[in-house]
Design a protein that fits this description.
about 15% strand; two-stranded parallel ribbon; 7-stranded parallel sheet; alpha/beta; about 290 residues
Length: about 290
């Protein structure tokens, strides 16, 4: 049976992606930090579903859960869904700003640790869930360090981290295509928002002041998480996307350039260098 891994798969969008992949006949592993939610997710999804507990903001826990997954054999689908956005700045146990750690670095580490399993499962897919928060970054983001100077606005900070990962996924798409691993990104919402546990924590302060007039329209347009996963599921299993590495799918499941236009050669190079530096520092410290 083909194996799918869904991070952040116990609630919100990830839960509904996991449920749909199980309906498609895949054995599904959901990874998240809350054991109670994990048990409930397994009960609701049913069938060949399991839960692995890990706080994916901790890079050490990411490595440990990846070791556990890889030991079980080939992986055919990896859905990097976990992410986070908060009104105020948070820091992980590694001392890294949480949005950058969860939306970018944890995905880098998990995917890298599962590459052998993905190669063994080829043709296989990596699906990165991205977002239009990328469009709220102020000017051209810099990646000289994990954090830019200036005020912390959750959506813009998350958008900068999502852009970093989108640039990384484009690099990965080119690198892994010869191995039969298709790397796709999906923006399931566009300018809308989904009713998820993370969204329930949001306040208008996540938006830069110039965008706060959009708060009420965003809230009014909130969509149920169950209704926004079609494009993610298509990226994971639709034969039409086999071998089309590097595509970004919009909410309608069609290829879109809306977010790719933010990925410049300069940003890609600086993200590449910063990611290497941060992960190397962690290894030296560890």
């Amino acid at each position: 049976m083909r194996q799918a891994i869904v991070t952040g798969g116990t609630s919100g969008i990830g839960f509904h992606v996991a449920s749909r992949l199980r309906e498609q006949g895949l054995a599904v592993t959901v990874v998240s930090r809350d054991a109670d939610r994990g048990a409930e997710a397994v009960r609701q999804i049913g069938g060949e579903t399991r839960f692995l507990q890990a706080d994916l903001s901790s890079l050490r826990e990411v490595e440990k859960v990846a070791e556990r997954i890889a030991a079980d054999g080939p992986v055919h689908v990896l859905v990097n869904n976990v992410g986070g956005m908060w009104p105020t700045r948070r820091e992980t146990v590694d001392g890294i700003e949480a949005s950058f750690a969860l939306n970018h670095l944890s995905r880098v580490v998990l995917t890298a640790a599962l590459l052998d399993a993905l190669r063994a499962g080829a043709p296989s897919r990596v699906v990165d869930v991205t977002s239009s928060s990328i469009t709220t970054t102020d000017g051209t983001p810099a990646y000289d360090d994990v954090e830019q100077e200036g005020d912390h606005y959750g959506m813009a900070v998350t958008g900068r981290a999502k852009l970093a990962h989108l640039a990384h996924s484009q690099d990965l798409a080119r690198e892994l295509a010869p191995a039969g691993i298709t790397v796709l990104a999906v923006d399931p919402l566009g300018p809308a928002a989904a009713a998820t546990p993370n969204a329930a924590e949001m306040t208008p302060e996540i938006l830069p002041p110039a965008l706060r007039h959009l708060w009420e329209p965003i809230q009014d347009g909130m969509r149920p998480a169950s209704g926004v996963v079609d494009a993610i599921v298509a990226a994971a299993v639709d034969p039409a996307f086999e071998g089309r590495s590097g595509l970004v799918l919009g909410p309608d499941g069609e290829p879109s350039e809306d977010l790719l236009r933010f990925v410049t050669p300069e940003i890609s190079a600086s993200v590449r260098a910063l990611t290497r530096r941060v992960l190397a520092r962690r290894v030296l410290a560890g």
